[in-house]
Each structure stands twice: as structure tokens, then as C-alpha cells.
Specification:
Blueprint lengths: L1 H32 L1 H9 L5 H4 L1 H24 L1 H12 L1 H5 L5 H29 L3 H12 L1 H15 L1 H6 L1 H22 L11 H4 L3 H5 L2 H31 L4 H24 L4 H21 L5 H28 L5 H32 L2 H19 L7 H9 L1
Helix pairs in contact: 1-7, 1-9, 1-11, 1-14, 4-5, 4-7, 4-18, 5-7, 5-11, 7-8, 7-18, 8-15, 8-17, 9-15, 14-15, 14-18, 14-19, 15-17, 16-17, 16-19, 18-19
Length: 408
């Protein structure tokens, strides 16, 4: 009975973290979609791309440090207090809305991003502690990977169906999304429990820290590959709505809806493919090529054949999420993995990923402002291609695949 109750608590904690991250995504994407209205309020007119994208830079920059901070907080406070701290920081998104200027608004959104980054890092040790079945673990990790997409999908639907109402008063719109965090904070305080993140670990595992992670070549390749993935993923969902509306025949809200909607379908396909035991590396390479290639084609036809572009964007979103759960489950499939080791690895992984993606976004927006739309998109696709080359250097974590290759 005690084990059953503990398992129920574990699932409850996973659900709260998942919903909190969905809310974070809704708040982030909605804020980005409302950038013209927000900058109009604070500056009285249009601003340069580098300024309009400042909030997105600040959020991704904050996430670089937050992911490293997350592991330290977890080890100092334990899972219950650390998770509560993370969800509590998300509520700064509500405070940001009513601050008097753009810079204070940006700073508060950065604090919100710290909380969001900590939440996603804490998903991994919770899953590792409560779930032992590998197939169930892949399913839950897949659900965790789609959390951001679920939030983006909800926002895309609202902005597609109720566009005028969403932009009429940006403060009221963001207040609705940000207020939901309060419910999840209360739920976490009510039911979350502590557990030992080093349980069942030998001396070698207990000694694993950031110095060890920094020496791990896989963590670096893994993090930089995801930085490239995020460049395509985050820009397409967060920044491209306004860009498509201004420079192409495409409707930015529809593109967001297609990416996030077909991404959710792709997640289910990724779970099914992953649980069939396919070799991980070839799957990631092929889906990576499809993801980047179809998005490149969408850009080519964006001003001549919008229907072709919409189809390519839908296919890109689907391919994106077929591989996403498989990709983020890789560390769980490595030998000797523990909640503690996962927290350290994912802390550095997310930091590298968001640092790389932030740099790519700054360069992209600078090129957009100085050289124009086409050169900026050439850079965008080039940066996204790096993912394919780095994935090709990964180890094969599916044991059957490793054994079959050795036998050959």
C-alpha cells in the first residue's frame, strides 16, 4: 500500500511539473506573439529586431545559468523545496506584466525563465526515481518533451481563432496565462514529497559532478546538437509569427498551429517508434534531415505557393517531434544512469543548448535587421543543419543495435 501511495505521489509530482511547464510555454509564446503590442506600449512605436527580440534573448540567456543552478538547488534543498522554488519563480511572469517599463518587464521575464528551466531539469530525477519500466519511462519522457509544444499549440489555437481578442489588451491576455501558475504552485506544496537523488548509487556515481560532466565529450556534442535543434524549434514557434506575417504570404498563427499540432502527432509516433526498439542514431539522422529539409522548402515557397509551405511546415513539425522524445531519452538509456547523474548531465546539457541557441538567435536577428529576410533565413537553415552532423557522432544507446553491429 505504501508503494502504491508513493507511486501515486510520484505521478502527481510529474503532472504538476508538466502542467507548470506547459503554462510557462503558453506565457512565453503568447508574450512573443504580442511583441508588437508590447513594444508599442513601452516605446510608442516599432523598434529594431534586436530590441523586439530582447525578451527572447533574455529568457534563453537566463535559462543557460538556470539549468546549472537547478542541480545545485536540488542538492541543497531536496526535490520538494527545489521544485517549489522553481514553480514559484514562474509567477514572476505575472509580476512582469504590470511593471512600468520594458527593461523591468524583461528582467522579470528572465526570472520567470529561470523557474521554467529549473522545472524541466527536475522532471528527469523525478522520472528516474519513480519509474523503472523502460517503455513507461520513454512514454513519460516523451510527454515531458511535448510540454512546451502543448502550451504553444494552445496559444496558437487561441491566436488563430480569437486573434482580435488576444491582441486587444496584451496585459489581460498574459495575466490569464500567468495566473495559472499559482494553481500548480499550490498543488506542489500540497502533495510533493522528498526523495534521495543518490539512492542506489555507488561511490563512482556519488562523485559525479559538473567537473566530470564538463570532461564528457558526449554531453558537449549532445548539448550543441540540441542548440541547433532549438534554433529551428524555438525561432519557428516563438519569433517567426511576426516575421512570416511581415515578409511572406504565410499567416504566422497558422504556421505555429501546424508546427505545434503536427508536433503532438509526431510525439505519439516517436513513442511508438522508440518502444519498438529501433536503433537510435539512424532514426535521429533521418528525421533530422526531414525536419530541416522540409522547413527549408517551406521558406523557398513562402511567397509563391503558401499551400506547399504549409504542408512542408506541418511535415517539419511532425519530424521534429518524432525524434524529440527519442533524443531526450538517450541519457536515460546510458549504463549506470542515476537521478543525481541525470540532474548534473541535463543541467549542463540545457545550459549548452540554450547558450548556443541564444547566440544563434542574436546573430539571426542582427542579420535580419542589417541584411534582410533572405540572408537571415540562409543563416537560420545553416545553423539548424549542424544538428544532423552532431547526431551522427552519438553512441548507439539501443543495446540490440550495438550487439547487432558487433556481430556483423
Amino acid at each position: 500500500m505504501e508503494t502504491m501511495n508513493t507511486t501515486k505521489k510520484g505521478y502527481f509530482m510529474m503532472a504538476v511539473l508538466w502542467l507548470a511547464y506547459v503554462t510557462f510555454a503558453m506565457n512565453w509564446v503568447a508574450g512573443s506573439s504580442l511583441t508588437p503590442q508590447i513594444t508599442e506600449t513601452f516605446f510608442g512605436g516599432p523598434v529594431k529586431p534586436v530590441i523586439s527580440q530582447l525578451v527572447n534573448y533574455s529568457i534563453t540567456t537566463a535559462r543557460v545559468f538556470a539549468n546549472i543552478l537547478a542541480a545545485v538547488v536540488l542538492m541543497k534543498l531536496g526535490p520538494r523545496k527545489a521544485g517549489g522554488t522553481a514553480i514559484g519563480l514562474l509567477m514572476m511572469g505575472l509580476v512582469a506584466i504590470y511593471l512600468p517599463n520594458y527593461w523591468a518587464y524583461t528582467a522579470a521575464r528572465m526570472v520567470m525563465a529561470v523557474g521554467g528551466s529549473m522545472v524541466i531539469v527536475y522532471m528527469n530525477p523525478v522520472v528516474a526515481h519513480y519509474i523503472t519500466n523502460s517503455k513507461v519511462k520513454l512514454q513519460i519522457n516523451a510527454a515531458n518533451t511535448v510540454a512546451y509544444n502543448a502550451g504553444a499549440f494552445i496559444v496558437a489555437i487561441l491566436f488563430t481563432l480569437f486573434a482580435s481578442q488576444m491582441i486587444e489588451n496584451w496585459r489581460m491576455t498574459l495575466t490569464f496565462f500567468a495566473s495559472l501558475t499559482i494553481l500548480f504552485f499550490a498543488g506542489w506544496l500540497w502533495k510533493a514529497e522528498n526523495f534521495e537523488t543518490n539512492a542506489g548509487v555507488g561511490k563512482e556515481g556519488e562523485a559525479y559532478g559538473y567537473k566530470d560532466a564538463l570532461k564528457d565529450g558526449f554531453v558537449w556534442r549532445y548539448g550543441l546538437a540540441f542548440a541547433s535543434f532549438l534554433t529551428l524549434y524555438v525561432l519557428s514557434l516563438v519569433s517567426f509569427k511576426a516575421i512570416f506575417d511581415e515578409y511572406t504570404l504565410l499567416n504566422g498563427s497558422v504556421t505555429n498551429l501546424l508546427i505545434s499540432g503536427f508536433g503532438i502527432l509526431g510525439t505519439f509516433a516517436g513513442i511508438k517508434i522508440g518502444n519498438k526498439g529501433v536503433m537510435r542514431k539512424p532514426t535521429l539522422i533521418v528525421t533530422g534531415i526531414v525536419m530541416v529539409g522540409t522547413f527549408a522548402l517551406a521558406l523557398v515557397f513562402a511567397n509563391s505557393l503558401p499551400i506547399v509551405s504549409y504542408s512542408m511546415i506541418a511535415l517539419s513539425g511532425f519530424a521534429m517531434y518524432v525524434q524529440y522524445p527519442i533524443f531526450l531519452n538517450l541519457p536515460h538509456e546510458l549504463k549506470g544512469m542515476t537521478p543525481h547523474r541525470l540532474t548534473i548531465m541535463f543541467g549542463l546539457f540545457w545550459a549548452l543548448a540554450y547558450a548556443g541557441q541564444t547566440i544563434a538567435t542574436i546573430v539571426w536577428s542582427f542579420i535580419l535587421g542589417s541584411a534582410g529576410y533572405i540572408p537571415s533565413m540562409i543563416f537560420f537553415i545553416s545553423a539548424s543543419c549542424l544538428y544532423i552532423f552532431l547526431v551522427a557522432t552519438f553512441p548507439e544507446t539501443r543495446q540490440k543495435g550495438v550487439e547487432a553491429r558487433k556481430a556483423a
